[in-house]
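Consider one such protein record:
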Amino acid sequence: EYDYILRIAAKDLADYERIHKEWLSAMPHVTKINSSFALREIVDRTAVGLRPEMA
């Protein structure tokens, strides 16, 4: 059961780990986080641009 589902755009797994530690885990009342990753490209489309402060 989920309260929220987020789609996180990260440069690589190290970037996701940073986001997980610095942002997601630091949120008040967050007690559990589940993550899923695509192991290969599923859809071929243009990349999602990241805001400079999030890159």
